[in-house]
Amino acid sequence: MYKHDHTKKPSDIPTPYEVCDYLYEILKPYDPKVILDPCAGDHRLTASFKNSEIINYEIKEGKDFFKASDPISCSLVMMNPPFNGTRPLFPEKFLDHTLNLVGFETPIVMFAPFGFRLNNHKKSERYKKLTSVYPKITTIISLPIDIFDLKTFHTEILIFNGSNLHLPPHLCLPE
User: Looking at residue 119, what DSSP letter applies?
Assistant: First the structure.
């Protein structure tokens, strides 16, 4: 039987299949032609998009997204970046680099800890970016705290630039 060390935060927690399936169902009407996944893990987040070209980066496969410097043309970004790490938070680092490569118009679906959006001081750099630099958050998908195996964590999915996805402003993962 697998034993988990609860004293150490896992650095690579796969996206639950039920969340991948849910995202596919709500995004398939948009029919993205090219999807960028800058932290692909085991590729399950984009696996159902059979009619889309997928551009994957995964450090464990020798494709470091942060070494990419050329612009990337895609119609959708989907990412579940690692949450642990140094300041700034990895989701912030991934979002910043993604925006540098794809621009500020592409819809972005990003998993984030609540602290990414909510635990900011008025003068913090991230708060400034959320209020005046980052694209508009058009949809927030609430996830249960126990959605990930072996780890409870306050997580939400933020969708930036999603007005053409025609999603409501707030969704919850169905039971």
Answer: S
Whole-angstrom CA distances from 64 to 57, 67, 127, 148, 168 are 6, 6, 27, 24, 34
Distance CA(111)–CA(140), nearest Å, equals: 10
Cis check: omega of the bond before 32, within 30 degrees of 0: no
Q: Cα separations (Å) of 107 from 13, 77, 87, 136, 167?
A: 24, 6, 25, 10, 12
24 phi-psi bin (left φ>0, alpha ψ -120 to 50, beta other): alpha
> 17: helix, coil or strand?
helix
Dump the DSSP string for 23-84.
HHHHHGGG--SEEEETT-TTSTTTTT-TTSEEEE-BGGGTB-GGG--S----SEEEE-----
Task: Assess contact for 107 and 139: CB atoms under 8 A.
Answer: no
Q: pLDDT tens-digit profile of 23-75?
A: 999 999 999 999 999 999 999 999 999 999 999 999 999 999 999 999 999 99
The label of the residue with tokens 């020798």 reads 62
Inter-axis angle of helices 90-102 and 125-132, to 10 degrees? 40
Helix (H, G, I), strand (E, B) or coil at 97: helix
Q: What is the dihedral of CA 121, 84, 49, 20, to 10 degrees?
A: -90
